[in-house]
Design goal:
Order of helices and strands: EHEHEHEHHHHHEHHHHEH
CATH architecture of the largest domain: 3-Layer(aba) Sandwich
CATH topology of the largest domain: Rossmann fold
CATH class of the largest domain: Alpha Beta
Strand order of the largest sheet: 3-2-4-1-5-6
Largest sheet: 6 strands, parallel
CATH superfamily of the largest domain: P-loop containing nucleotide triphosphate hydrolases
Number of domains: 2
């Protein structure tokens, strides 16, 4: 039988986890988590990680597998998922990948370009410059080393900026010249669904989700990791606003409202990214399972 990876993606807060669990139960298969922050332990409220009940309802992989201090990347995710899939195929012809981290989804479906391994010396030098001179200094360096790549990224994203500088330094050529954009061939079928609802309804759900996070104890969760705020794993919506509140640069009301706004902005970025993919089938959350079953049984 042909093996099929069913991808369930879409903007944050749209209902991907519930749809994936229902589909996994129907197909008796596992779920591969494709959320770059749910990879980490210790911040389940902030990342809206699957609950104990959800984890019990279907077997999940790549949830809370890394400590906050550990580094992880889309390239490592690609390698790890491809290593896992053969064992899943032994038990059936389907697996589900669920999550909204665009690079993680693309890494498995399309592949990541082969890039040089970063030496400890280069990584340490970039980290030292970041700590000594700040992110702006690395942005300036990236603009010199690779203006094309620098023009395409979020310059406030510490991880992306550092990674770009590291690649340029290690390879000795602009990072953009190493990015082919050529999709790799996989030895399994891929069916991709993106869940979506009306923009106003999505934004209401996002705002309500942030309120629930606060009620569940997001502030306490953030305080527990505040001493680690320099880590890339904590450079995420929710933690950044809470840390700003703890630093005294935002009051509590502003921090919560900013969290809602930044989550809405991220959802719009996700939608823009996935609309470029002609291989995606767009579907309402309530229709996701039925549509997925129809697509795989064609």
């Amino acid at each position: 039988m042909e093996k099929t990876l069913i991808v369930i993606t879409g903007p944050t807060g749209v209902g991907k986890t519930a749809a994936a669990i229902e589909l996994a139960q129907r197909l008796h298969c596992d779920i591969i988590n494709a959320d770059s922050r749910q990879i980490y332990r210790g911040i389940p409220i902030c990342t809206a990680a699957p609950t104990a009940e959800e984890l019990a309802a279907a077997r999940h992989h790549f949830v809370a597998i890394k400590d906050l201090e550990e580094s992880y990347s889309a390239a490592q995710f690609e390698s790890d998922v491809l290593a896992l899939l053969p064992s899943l195929w032994q038990h059936g012809e389907y697996a589900i990948m669920c999550g909204g981290s665009m690079l993680y989804v693309d890494a498995v479906c399309r592949g990541i370009d082969q890039l040089p391994d970063i030496s400890p010396e280069v990584r340490g030098a970039v980290k030292e410059k970041l700590q000594r001179d700040g992110l702006e200094s690395l942005v300036a360096e990236l603009e010199q080393l690779d203006p094309q790549y620098a023009s395409t990224i979020d310059r406030k994203n510490t991880s992306r900026v550092c990674h770009g500088v590291e690649i340029c330094r290690q390879a000795g050529v602009p990072y953009s010249t190493l990015r082919t954009g050529t999709a790799k061939q996989r030895d399994f079928n891929i069916v991709k669904l993106a869940l979506n609802i009306g923009r106003e309804q999505l934004f209401i759900r996002i705002n309500q989700r942030v309120d629930r996070m606060i009620d569940m104890g997001l502030e306490q969760e953030a305080r527990a990791v505040y001493h680690l705020r320099h880590l890339n794993s904590l450079n995420t919506v929710g933690m950044k606003e809470m840390f700003a509140m703890f630093d005294g640069t935002m009051d509590r009301h502003t921090a919560i409202e900013r969290m809602k706004k930044n989550t809405r902005v991220y959802a719009k970025k996700q939608l823009t990214w996935y609309r470029r993919d002609n291989g995606i089938t767009w579907v309402a959350p309530d229709d996701a399972v039925t549509t997925a079953l129809q697509l795989i049984h064609r």
